[in-house]
Amino acid sequence: MSRFDRSQLRLLPLHERRHDLTLEVIMELSPVGPSPIRDRMRPIAARLAQARENGAARVLMMGGHVIRSGVQPYLVDLMRRGLISCIAMNGACAIHDFEFALIGATTESVARYIASGQFGLWCETGQLNDVVNAAYAANPGEGMGLALGRAIAEGDYPHKEHSLLAWAYRLGVATTVHVAIGQDIVHEHPNFDAAATGAMSYNDFLTFAAQLQGLEGGVLMNFGSAVMAPEVYLKALSMVRNTAHADGRSITRFTTLVCDLHDLPENPRVEPLKTTPAYYFRPWKTMLARTVREGGEGYYVRGRHADTVPALWTELRALERGEPAPPVVEPGAVVLENPKVLDVRVLAERVAQMRAHGLKVVHCHGCFDLMHPGHIKYFQAARRMGDALVVTLSPDRFVDKGPGRPAYSESLRAESIAALECVDLVAVNQWPTAVETLRLLRPDVYVKGQEFEKLEDRTGKLQQEYAVARELGIEMAFTHEIVFSSTRLLNAYFRATPENGHGE
């Protein structure tokens, strides 16, 4: 039977690729305010601190979107403080981490590059294979996580300070990479050696299993891995329980945490019925129900990684400093939930689906700190320009309107916009400008208010957005409605910003 000849592949340099993410996505290390997510992280923080004190395992498993969310500073700090003893990642994580360290950018549009067959075929990304192949030749018993971390930490990688692999290597934190062959873009490359990758990934599996030998009294967390994490964890746990049982020991009393965007019930210890789609969400039945029945406990926190990871870090920081816990925030008080409010990457998927069905998608972006009639008329006018209106708004950390701004948190601003009938979907942006957002969403029309029609913006952000819109073939349109300024209204009528984001 014939096989595909990889020598015929045409690889291009990475500088010719349009990157969907740059280092601008990397978040600053700072505590977050009270929220229901922080409240739900409080018991996890206590369990992690206790596990560190007792020398039990503190394991973090993760999918590729964690790297793409820019939470690296939080995870590095947790490693530094001994609150993470092992990181287990899939192949996508390793690739994003490697590219960030190498060129300060990562992620490409599947839709753009699959059409020409260029998806994943970039020269410099394939250097990851060279690292693995050389490490395997030098020491067949070494793991992939260690080899990649050492290569980045000791090699010529201009942005290595953002690499989780490099930091784990420096700090002596076990890092394992669990690869499914054929699943990652580097497997397309002519220099991919399945024997080397398979052996080193299996070495990592054994390293991961050894880490779980210390799971009694410990904590295992899964951020965003729906398949790799539950399946690798399940097999490794079976192995360590098998040997522990033979020694008269048990590994049953530990804590699991799953963070994802699925809607799960308050008590996830009850396994979903086989007749429901939820049954096939492996983290629920495997990590929160089946494996903790004998004395363990499972927690589920719904939210974006850009929210859940900082919330956990903030709770651990408060615990170590002896700070009193903030008042419990009831869901709906500050961080509200609305099915129209999505993670920005989920929004991108929905936009792609709408466009695939022939709908004309219109996009608006801004701060929208104080909702006023000008905003409403702007959204209504934009909605009339197409079949669906999606709105993204600036996250709190990138609002540059002056002291005390934003007056309302990103969650409240998103909920306010989602309450409008003319708006179909809303997301909080992850970047300082809409440039990366436009590349991610690819709307048909990008709409600004008439006050921007002359493309005059002292910050230069609008000019950058206009250039990207032209580059991507996105129509730039302007509304002509009544104009107000949130900043002027706040300065004129609000003597102080609302306390705790509740308004007056």
TrEMBL record:
Keywords: Nucleotidyltransferase, Transferase. Residues 44-106 form the Arginine dihydrolase ArgZ/ArgE-like C-terminal second subdomain domain. Residues 365-467 form the Cytidyltransferase-like domain. One of its GO terms (molecular function) is nucleotidyltransferase activity. The keyword Nucleotidyltransferase applies. Gene3D superfamilies: HUPs (3.40.50.620), putative lor/sdh protein like domains (3.40.50.10690). This is RfaE bifunctional protein, domain II. It comes from Humidesulfovibrio mexicanus.
